[in-house]
Amino acid sequence: MTNSGGDSHFAVAQNLIMKIVEMDSSDLEQVITLCEQLGYPLSFDDIQTRFLLISKEPTHKLYVAKMINDQVVGWIHVN
Question: What is the pTM of this model?
């Protein structure tokens, strides 16, 4: 089940509630943690540079999946 509210989308599955929102600079530390868990260690400068470059592209979007407590549990780059 999904519910759209403003710029956020909420997903409910097995009593877990997540929201999908556009990534902003406050999410970068948690995105770095996810990248490290997946075997892609990046510095803050690396991820910030990529974030700023992608954010300037009008046909590209970065989204994060957040639990109800704002813990980032996923991210995606779409074009």
Answer: 0.78
